[in-house]
Amino acid sequence: MKLQQLTAVKAATALEKLTQPQLKELQTALQTLGYPAGGADGILGPKTRAAWAQFKQDISAGQPDEIGPGSVTTLQQKLDQAAAGGGGAVPPQAVAIVKNYEGLRLQAYDDGVGVWTIGYGTTRYPNGQPVKPGDSITQAEAEQYLQNDIKGYAQKLAATVPFWNQMNANMHAALISFAYNLGPGFYGSGGFETISRDLRDKNWSAVPQALLLYSNPGSSVHEGLLARRKAEGALWRGQGPFA
């Protein structure tokens, strides 16, 4: 945490003195905790100021235009609590939808782009070792690896997606399935501008439609991905067989 550097400084720092990476980290943290900071662009605008002022008010701290060791420590504690309390949980809805669309393979296979995969889409074992050609596992191990993978994805999403702790389990599961398919670092990344914007702005009613954009139109996998995106959208709304 770049902001942790401020805990080594005894005096508080004016928000204007923060570096762009520190501001981005602060904005991401605030949005994760439900404070609308206006995106993580590293620019100190009125929304970021207002979000930080509200956070400091909520923790009964003064000086809304400053950030010091105490407020940084409290911010990190609240992020840890959010991740432990819900961010790192494994919703059963996520397990169900991922199982359905990933399928089960007990022998290692090439996923088509040179990545060796096993079980329900596992590419690395819990010990960090990559899946290798010739590997085989039991169904019980596949279940264990799936739980581990989903928990890791949920923790990553909890730390990056704004308002995560305000979402319900169906919403979490929909985004976990999306991330399981396209990577847990999608938020704010190139090519994911639409869904990132809707999540950033808390435009939740638009998320199901945004999901449909990521189905590789014109490719051989389009129909399968489109079906998955539709199922994720339904789950987000609390509908369909996985809700």
Question: How would you explain this protein's 3D organization?
Answer:
The protein is mainly alpha-helical and 243 residues long. The chain folds into two domains: 2-87, Muramoyl-pentapeptide Carboxypeptidase, domain 1; 92-236, Lysozyme (Orthogonal Bundle), CATH 1.10.530.40. Helix content is 49%, strand content 6%. It has nine helices and four strands, in the order E-H-H-E-H-H-E-E-H-H-H-H-H. It has helices spanning 20-32, 46-58, 69-87, 92-102, 139-160, 169-182, 193-200, 207-211, 222-236, and strands at residues 13-14, 66-67, 105-110, 116-119. Strand 3 and strand 4 (116-119) form a beta hairpin. The mean pLDDT is 89.
> What's the domain count?
2
* End-to-end distance: 35 Å
Overall CATH architecture of the largest domain = Orthogonal Bundle
Question: Strands of the largest sheet, in order across it?
Answer: 1-2
Shape from CA axes? Answer: elongated
Q: What's the total count of β strands? A: 4
Cα-based radius of gyration, to the nearest Å: 20 Å
Mean pLDDT: 89
The percent of residues in helical segments reads: 40-55%
CATH topology assignment of the largest domain: Lysozyme
Q: What is the highest CATH level, the class of the largest domain?
A: Mainly Alpha
Helix count from the secondary structure assignment: 9
Q: Which structural class matches the secondary elements?
A: mainly alpha
N-to-C order of helices and strands = EHHEHHEEHHHHH
Flag low-confidence runs.
none
Strand content: 5-15%
Q: Describe the main β-sheet briefly.
A: 2 strands, antiparallel
